[in-house]
Every structure is written in structure tokens, then in C-alpha cells.
């Protein structure tokens, strides 16, 4: 019978031989007493190694024997005995062979103690004769019934050898005193036992394994394959990476904005508001606007144009849509125009030259490999400022760019620099200029190469100019190049010389826009000389001035009696009529397609300063009688000592464009300029229908 799982019976582990044999050694002093069992009585002893663990000897006996867990149950006529094997009491078999199935207990105790627990039945049943005593064994229902060859499994037995005195004490104990409560009996299929043979002498021997060939033991369950698990981990990692990548991508503002995700920075927080109603103050000219009448304009200007502050005054008003003259006050009188001369030079250049033309400054190889020559191309706007910063000339080329090109092309071998100023001829100042006009805050001596128009401060329009702007450029260039100015500063470049660097100005239309807006004298002189060069005339004051008048006359403008000595208007000897100035502006402001000259001259209007807003008119039209013209008048100014001119365009209240030119000589600028502003502002408010 199976002992209780909580049995105190333990087996001490010996060496490998004892365990394999399953013998129970007995002390030499005293042979253990055997339990009085009837013939053919079976005792099961559990091996101490635990469930499922078997020695090689046990594996060999699996085919012939199988451990069967049994439970003794009390029958009405049969005795139930629970026996636990120990070395204290060994059942003595009959002379014939008796088999004891030994099972080691689960818990190990010191080898000196081993207990046999015998549990007495609650009711004493009649004991059958010794020859007929029966112990009924019932198989547990859990495992399937094994085959005959598998009834017994051999289990190695650990030797247990308690001292004799302990054995005697254990024998004296009553079987019911130390019997533990019954415990669940494990299924027989989970236990492994070895059959033992008890000789008449009391010796115990393991049963020999059957001689027939045993079937190979079942292979243990193969360990789970890790390949699939590894692949699963790889796929899982890839999936996590993809999820993270998608999450990061969706978090990028550009992606989230394009997809309209809820967390997008630009996602609308609510319904888009209705667009606010906007009323434009500026209206384009209207073809259907009422046509101003000559009488209406004359009536409106009778007061402002007769202001004594204007001195000698001449002027005219023209309707560009029809070409008709609305007001004529000595319009053909020749007066000094001052800076209004720039309108004539600019108009002639737009009519004659390519609007995309640029002024070039380049550097070529000199007479020796270590010498470089700046070939002046007539660009006064070349900037000394670093790239990214603008001087008073937006879009100008930068000296640093030219220096970098020369260093790269020469390999840094340039040690001397010179400049070629042969493009211009004649004097550096014109007839009619005052001695202090150049250098001044308005102009520098006219040469074909300079930095920032010769200004000391490239960001300030009215900044003092250099007395020798070409030399100033040469010195700055040599310093940035790491070279020195040659003893002979000027030289003429050889035709076809190797070009080491080249930079270009803004296009012609932008240059004209700039010179009209800020009334730049040196830039106007540069354009006049390009006009002369384009016509094959000398690049001089006289060449530029005469070419301008010729071009205007060739294009149908009345230049009768006009005299020009420069392109800037600094000369007090220049004489033009208000009619010529008004004609140029009238063609520029004419409706598109009406006059073929209009397309070429339209850039004139873009450069005109805005009253109270830009250029030379930014601080004008402040008087009460002139405020109506702020923002509506665009005009070119001209101011010299005793000379004041205003010529431009205005949009009247009816939406009609009017062109005007008013010239005042013999007047003081402080009083004449406000008087001219009042005339232009009157045209804005009159309607004059």
C-alpha cells in the first residue's frame, strides 16, 4: 500500500552505487526486525528522488513492471493496512520469492531516523488465517491500464540506516500515535518504483531486468522551437518601429497640416470667419469719369497759381486720355528746370536703350601676372556694404563679390592694382555747376567708377561725397584684396585681357526709378553717358545732354529752344519749357495702346515720388491747403537757389488722371515749394467738370 505523502519516512542519499542498486544496508550490530505480514503481502515504498526521476536501472525495467499507486480501502470483511517501509521493520517473506515495491518519501530526514506509520482500522475485522490473509489493492482510476510488459518500473532505492536504538524506539511506538493524517495519493502513472527481492535471510536485492530486448524509451518532449518565437520577436520589433515612425511623421507640422489632423498647428480652431468688408481708397483711373473742362481747371487754379511766392511762374495741365490742354500759363516759356532735367534724361534713355541693360564693373589681368586693373563701366552704385545689406541703391552689386572672384581667378597672386577710367571723357563737372556742387552732399565729381555714389555713409542719401571717388574705390579694393595701389594708379586695360572678375548693376528701369525717387545726381549723369555711348556720342556732359534732346526730338517731342548742359539738372544754364515736361508725362500716363511710346515711357511714373510718402516728397504737402494731395500726387521735384519746379500726375476726385508741370524762377524755396504743393493739391480736389 502507498504511504501518506506527509510521511516522516526519509531516505539519505548515498553514493551512486547504493542508489542504483536500491539495497537497504543494515547495521552490523543488529538486524532489523521484520514486520509481521501475512504470506504474499505487498509493501510499497516511495523512492526519495521525487516524481518522474529514474535511474538507468529503473529505465531498463519499465517494460516489465509499472508502479501502481494503491490505496487501501476498508471493506466489511477485509483488513485495511497502511504500511510505510523503513529500515526498522522489514517484512519477512516466505521461503518462496516475495516482491516488495519500495517508494522513497518526498521529504528527506537525517539518516538516523526513519519511521514506520501504521494506521489501525477504526473497527477490528476478523483476521483471516495466515494462509488466507488478503490485502486488497485498488488501482487509481486516473492513468490508463498499462500493458503487461509495463506493470512495474524500477526505481533506485536510497539506503536508510538509522541507529539500532532509534529503531528500537520506533518499534515501541504505537502505530496510531505517529500516523499522519491521510493525504491524497498521487496517480500511479507519475511514480516510478523498482521491484525488490527479499531473500529468506532478510537480504534485499533488486529484481533483475527482463532479458528480452526492451523497446527504446520514449524520447523526452522536444524543447519548444525558438525559431518561430524569434521570428515573432523580430516582426513585433519591426511593427513597433513602424508605429513609432508613423507617429513621428504624423507629428511633423507639415504632414499634420496637410492631412488636417486634429493636432496640426494650422488646423482651424473653429469656423472660418466671414471675410471683412474692405473698401479700397485707391481707385484706378476710370475711362468713364467726367472729362475736366478747361474753364473748370482755370477757375480752380486761378488762385493758387497766382501766388506771389512763385515768382516767375509757367505751367500747364494736360488730360492724357485725350491729349487736350486744360490749363496753359506761359507753357512754352523756357525756364531753369533744376532736377526736373532728370525727366528728360530718363525719358530719352527709356526710349533709346534696352530696359534690361546693366552697368558692368570688371577686373582684368594687368601688364604682369601680379597686377590687376579695375575696368570702370560707369556704375556709381557699386556697394561697399557686405552681401545682404543694401545701400541707398537697392539691388546694387557688391565689392566683396568682385574681390572674391579676383582672388579665386588669380590664386591670390595679385599684389598691385590699377584702375581704367577711359570710359568717360571731358571734365568731371559741368558748365553751370557751382564750385561747391561737387563734392557736396548732392554730388561727387563724375567719374565712371565709385563706391556708393561717392558717399561716406552708403545708407544716407544726403551724405558728404568723396572728392576723388575713383581713388577711394581703388584703395578699398586693394585693401580687401590684400594688395597695394600701384604707383601709377590709372592704366588702360589691354583689349582681350583675361577677366578676373565681373559684377553688374541693377537693370536700367530700376536705376531710373532710383534716380527719380531720390533725385540722385551722379546716377543721372551715369545714365546720360550710357545714352551717349548708345548713340555713338562721347560719354561726357555735353555728349549725354545733346543726345537726350536729340532722342526726344526724334520721338516727336517739342524740344524747341531747350538747352541742356548736364543730365542731373545741377547746371543753372539748363533751359526747358513746362510744355516739354508735361508732354513726356502725358505720353507716359496715356491709356495703354493709345500711343506706342507709352509702353517705353511708363517706368517714368513708377519712379515719381509720392506726396507725403516717398523720395523727395516724403516731407512735403503738409500745409492745410496741400493736404488733399497727400498720396494722390506723384511728381518730380527740382530745386536750386531761386529755382523750384514740380511736374507729375494726379488723380482727381472724379477718378480722372491729370498731368501738370509748374516751374518757378526767382523764388525762395521755403515759400515757393508749399505754393507749388497747393497747386497740385487743388487739381486733386477740383473735379473741374
From TrEMBL:
Biased composition (Pro residues): 178-187, 213-223
Gene Ontology MF, one: serine-type D-Ala-D-Ala carboxypeptidase activity
SUPFAM superfamilies for the chain: beta-lactamase/transpeptidase-like
Enzyme superclass (EC): hydrolase
InterPro entries: Beta-lactam/transpept-like (IPR012338), Peptidase_S13 (IPR000667)
NCBIfam families in the record: PBP4
Name of the protein in question: D-alanyl-D-alanine carboxypeptidase/D-alanyl-D-alanine-endopeptidase
Record organism: Amycolatopsis acidicola
